[in-house]
Amino acid sequence: MKKVFVDGSSGTTGLQIHERLSLYNDLEIISIDYEKRRDPAERAKCLNEADLVFLCLPDDAAKEAVNLISNPKTRVIDASSAHRVASGWTYGLPELSRKHREAIIGSRRVSNPGCHATAFLLSVYPLLSSGIMPPDYPLTCQSLTGYSGGGKTLIEKYESNNGKNDYIKAPRPYALTLNHKHLPEMTLHSGLAQSPVFVPVIGNNYKGLAVMVPLHTRLLSGKPDGRAIHELIADHYKDETFVKVMPYEDDAVLFDGAVDITACNDTNKAEIFVFGNAAKGSALILTRIDNLGKGASGAAIQNMNLMLGYDENYNLKS
After folding, report:
1. What does the pLDDT look like over 269-286, one tens digit per residue?
2. Catalytic status, residue 115
3. Intervals of the chain under pLDDT 70
4. In b/e form, how buried is each residue of 176-204, taking b as 16+ CB within 10 angstroms?
5. In what order do the strands lie in the sheet with 2-7?
6. CA-CA distance, 88 to 107, in Å (whole number)?
7. In sequence order, what E strands does 163-259 have?
8. DSSP label at 34?
9. Which DSSP symbol is given to 254?
10. How large is the angle between the packed helices 115-130 and 226-236, nearest 10 degrees?
11. Between the CA atoms of 128, 129, 130 and 134, what dihedral angle is there, to the nearest 10 degrees?
12. Of 46, 56, 115, 141, which one is the catalytic site residue?
């Protein structure tokens, strides 16, 4: 029986991973006394006893935890951003390509992608890997996201009932220094030569996320219109369980002419929409996910399934 340890199990992602692990009857979950959770010796014991470890910690603490592991058989899935562009670590987004999936299966160190990065990469990777989009394309993107992505502290701020709550008054653009912590992985793993201009916006919904990538089609190789871009992306993901490319120009998949960013909540799905205006030479790729599902704990469990030899879809809702 494989042994699994969640280091940092009291945070939002850690709690959700624990909940998902409870569905497995053939895994032994290693627990640590609450009072000893910060004791390096006790943590090292749990880390080295496990066949697979989930790190649900701040970046510095995740790096510290890796340094405590001396057992060469202990495999790690790091849910922090500490190792997403680090040498020796595999990026845990298997849908990008066959090579990505095979690397995860054989890896001992996997970095779980960020939520914004997941939706962004699923949107643009097919264009860059096919050569339709040049690496120096001047990309911009925007993300609409639920407040749960900010963890316990932000959740408490949004759900406070102590009188007037300005947090729920209106959506809030943030990371306005244009240096969001997901940018390094978005740039490296897409194949872009320069970072996109990225503006995330947090709304008064608990979870649900959508990344929007506008395109000037005249700057793409062959100047494809929206329908051609849709066909390219649909072909890239045609065999994927969790990534679905929605029908082109079909109002039936919209909500009163718009996209509901919460429609993938409580699943491990990513749904990709492509819109186009041939007369204006413009297109838009929009990808929605559950930021706590495919954007966090769901992706972590999917990577665990691959690493431990389960069916990739096991205990995940598509």
Report:
1. 999 999 999 999 999 999
2. yes
3. none
4. eeeebebbbbbbebbbbeebbebebebbe
5. 27-30, 2-7, 52-55, 75-78, 109-111, 90-91
6. 9
7. 172-173, 197-202, 209-216, 243-245
8. G
9. S
10. 100
11. 30
12. 115
pLDDT at 164: 84
Angle between helices 12-21 and 298-308 (to 10 degrees): 50
Q: How far is CA 140 from CA 211, 216, 262, in A?
A: 11, 11, 22
Domain boundaries, the chain: 2-113+295-308, 115-291
Helix %, strand %, coil % for the chain, to 5? Answer: 35, 20, 40
The pair phi, psi for residue 49, each rounded to 5°, is: -80, -20
Burial of 248 per CB tally in 10 Å (0-12, 13-18, 19+): middle
233-283 pLDDT, tens per residue? Answer: 999 999 999 999 999 988 999 999 999 999 999 999 999 999 999 999 999
The CATH superfamily assigned to 2-113+295-308 is NAD(P)-binding Rossmann-like Domain (3.40.50.720)
Q: Which fold has domain 115-291?
A: Dihydrodipicolinate Reductase; domain 2 (3.30.360)
The residue type at 77: I
Locate 289 and state its tokens. 């996910």
